[in-house]
Amino acid sequence: MMAEYTVIRDIDYYKESIELLYRITNNNSYENLKLDMLKRLEEREHAKVIEQLDKLSKIEEDIKREIDITHMDIQFYFRRFVTEDLCIAKILYQSMIHTVFQSDTKAIKNYIKQSFQNIKNDNTLQLSLENYEMAVSKFENNQVMPYTDRIGNLECEAAQKWQILDLIEHSDEHLDRLFPILEHTISKMKKFENILEELKKESCDYWEEYFKKNEFMKLINIFFNMKEDSFPTKPAYIRPQIMNYNKVLLYGNDENAGDYHILDVGITFDCEFRATKNTLTKEQLCTGLKMLSDPSKFEILRFIKDKRAYGQEIASELNLTTATISHHMNALITLGLINLEKVDNRIYYQTNKEAIYILLEEVKQTLF
Questions:
Q1: How confident is the model at residue 225 (pLDDT cuts 50, 70, 90)?
Q2: Cα–Cα distances in Å, from 112 out to 16, 94, 257?
Q3: What gap in Å lies between CA 62 and CA 325, rounded to an integer?
Q4: The pLDDT value given to residue 280
Q5: pTM for the complete prediction?
Q6: Residue 73 neighbours by CB under 8 Å, 6+ apart
Q7: CA–CA gap between residue 342 and residue 355 (Å, rounded)
Q8: What is the pLDDT of residue 231?
Q9: Are strands 236-241 and 134-138 parallel, antiparallel or unpaired?
Q10: Can you tell me the distance from the alpha carbon of 85 to that of 80, in angstroms, rounded to the nearest whole number?
């Protein structure tokens, strides 16, 4: 029996505007993305990529003329923060990416504020910084840790820890500064509403047809190398993403994340198109080499190269905390260097040797 699924057709303009402003602020243009993708993709994909990214470039250039990227608040909320693809605005909005409800601005801001209050008050929640959010998960073995210690254990500079502490303590003030920027951007984006709706509809129509014949976990196996029976069958929500054009992100894939799966999939992807898995950009090559040069990540990969192991087991063997293991794993999984399998409600990890081989081969081809 196929699990219930829903393709989300509404455009989350707040999320789309955050991604667009992040790209503009960090000079990560759609034109450069197009040139990079055309080098890496087969010719059969070129026409689609050119058409879509030319439309996004047009929107990007128009928005750039409407905002002052040197403004203090623009730089504070949207410049790159700690990791690739992360910024303060994304951390502020992160609780919304784990939900599927639609609501008005007041309700959204109240929900975000309550989410940060929960993070502060619940000492069973460990925190880690991933590429796209400040991840929140339960400690293993019913461990608890004071709020300030959980912030202090984040792997970032002291000044950045203070910024995160300030975000949590004063989320209402930050939301009052951030949302006018987003609303101004959205008002400009809506001049291109027909283009955005057309791009979204094309992707939504594709996934509606796909799930008439295929299970959700089959797609997860394609994108993430997860075995189809590794995770429980739950309702699934598919959210085609416009501005986050070339990324695929999975939420709700473990026992801590609620009663449903959410898949954010860039509009360029179909079930056979796996650009970020099969080929790597120069930025990803550098990120991969940085991961391999990190002693803890290297030891994790070495420890599980010929066997699978769960988080507590790896932590004990390498004399690291489970929070540190979780942080490292999230980074390694993002680049596809780790395979996951869930057995008896426990997640096991194993090195993805094929992905590491591809990484090293592409470095070789680039430099030799």
A1: low
A2: 17, 8, 17
A3: 43
A4: 63
A5: 0.79
A6: 177, 178, 181
A7: 20
A8: 62
A9: unpaired
A10: 7
